[in-house]
Amino acid sequence: QVQLVQSGGGLVQAGGSLRLSCAASRSIFSFSAMGWYRQAPGKQRELVAAFTSGGSINYADSVKGRFTISRDNAKNTVYLQMNSLKPEDTAVYYCVASVYWGQGTQVTVSS
């Protein structure tokens, strides 16, 4: 059983920053892909950023230049640094590793 434990998130004003963390219960090298999705109220879940199985990084167009995904292999942890946050970034953010999902973290950006 793989566990993904998320931390970070919360309430921030527009223009502010937050960092999300996702700690896996086993080596992140074992996952074919790992990243972050989000789901806003009334909207479909969407990819935010991810390390792909081919070793590249994908970002949603809406977050390019503002969000950065990174990883600490020694800590089995993936991060999402979110800068210049906008109200439209408000959503529940999920860490995903292969077929495993984290518990979700609320990010709320006030205008």
Concise summary:
The protein is mostly beta strands and 111 residues long. 0% of the residues lie in helices and 52% in strands.
Q: How big a fraction of the residues is strand?
A: over 45%
Main beta sheet strand tally, sense and closure: 7 strands, mixed
If helices are DSSP runs of H or I spanning 4 or more residues, what is the number of helices?
0
Ends apart, CA distance between termini: 40 Å
Estimated structural class: mainly beta
Q: What helical percentage do the residues reach?
A: under 10%
Rounded to an integer in angstroms, the radius of gyration calculated over CA atoms is 13 Å
Give the overall average pLDDT.
Answer: 96
Description:
The chain has 111 residues and is an all-beta fold. Helices cover 0% and strands 52% of the residues. The chain has no helices and eleven strands. The chain has strands at residues 4-8, 10-13, 18-24, 34-39, 46-51, 57-59, 67-72, 77-82, 91-97, 100-101, 105-110. The strands form two sheets. Strands 2, 4, 5, 6, 9, 10 and 11 form a seven-stranded mixed β-sheet that branches. Strands 1-3-8-7 form a four-stranded antiparallel β-sheet, with no helix packed on it. A hairpin with a 6-residue loop joins strand 4 (34-39) and strand 5 (46-51). It is globular, with a radius of gyration of 13 Å. The protein starts with a strand and ends with a strand.
